[in-house]
Specification:
The chain has about 300 residues and is mainly beta. It contains 5 helices and 20 strands. The chain starts with a helix and ends with a strand. The relative contact order is 0.16.
Length: about 300
């Protein structure tokens, strides 16, 4: 009997260099301007403490008239949907803050003085953000490993296991959007791009989806196909891509579009199920990942 992944693979697009670099039968599209810059990026991390307690730690990076902003929220992972227990906005470029979240004491340490930004409010290097939960390191972001404060945090406290489970990027601008995503713990960081354009000498809009600047598929007749889905393989993982651009065309007051890339959960999320050395424990620890792109722009 064929495996579930084998059946899916007949209808899914496999993302690989050989596939992406090959010739594509596509109509010539009108040029697209440079990608919009995200105005806010929200990352949700799942942290498993030594007492087997699960927390959701939400980090939101945003742009404001005062510069880059940072907000942290702590929620227990027991409730569905989880209820936010505590939220704090960190206004300074460097500092420390402590507060209560339920029965836990939360301590946050951060340093953004030397942070460098690529495009958008989320720093790419030269920073760190650390979250202690009852004197246990629940989250550590950044690349300042040689900083004395980071060394103290890494060596002076027990470490929780944490992983990124969701990234939500909000855009406002033209009709090209780009965000980073890693769909597997063993995979690489990919650039996911979405472009809206019109076919040359035609009013028909076309939606193009790219991974690492290589076109994967297109959605034509977008006014009729304003909602839909497509399955792709990235790093051997099944990823469902869903889009909803209804408001771009039929609600000009808001003009919001939503694009979601979500890995499948359970055993159905792996492409190579037949491998004899499949590590079942790692499979259970893989909590999945979801990339959500919200684009506030009417292409008309």
């Amino acid at each position: 009997m064929r495996s579930v992944a084998t059946c899916y693979s007949e209808h899914a697009i496999k993302v690989s260099d050989s596939y992406c670099s090959g010739p594509l039968n596509r109509s010539y599209l009108s040029p697209v301007s440079a990608p919009s810059m995200p105005i806010a990026v929200t990352c949700i991390y799942k942290s498993k403490l030594s007492n087997q307690r699960h927390l959701l730690i939400t980090i939101t990076w945003c742009n404001s008239f005062l510069g880059q902003g940072l907000t942290i929220s702590i929620a227990d992972d027991k409730s569905s949907p989880p209820k936010c227990s505590a939220s704090r906005q960190l206004r300074k470029r460097k500092g420390a803050k402590s507060f209560q979240s339920g029965n836990s004491r939360i301590e946050v340490f951060w340093d953004l003085l030397s942070a460098q930004f690529d495009s958008g409010p989320e720093p790419v290097n030269g920073f760190y953000v650390a979250v202690l939960v009852d004197s246990e390191l629940g989250l550590l972001l950044g690349d300042m490993d040689e900083e004395l404060d980071v060394i103290r945090l890494r060596t002076g406290f027990p470490h929780a296991k944490f992983s990124l489970i969701s990234r939500n990027a909000h855009f406002s601008g033209n009709s090209a959007f780009s965000a980073k995503a890693q769909f597997s713990n063993l995979g690489t960081n990919h650039e996911i791009s979405i472009e809206y354009a019109r076919e040359q000498d035609s009013p028909n809009p076309v939606l193009s989806v790219m991974v690492d600047k290589k076109k994967i598929f297109q959605v034509k007749r977008l006014r009729w196909n304003f909602r839909g889905n497509q399955t792709i393989f990235v790093d051997g993982v099944l990823v469902d891509m869903m889009w909803d651009v209804h408001d771009w065309f039929f609600d000009p007051r808001y003009g919001y579009a939503v694009f979601m890339f979500r890995t499948r959960s359970g055993l159905d999320n792996r492409l190579w199920l037949e491998e004899k050395n499949l590590d079942m424990e790692k499979e259970q620890d893989d909590v999945g990942f979801c990339l959500l792109i919200c684009a506030c722009k009417s292409p008309n």
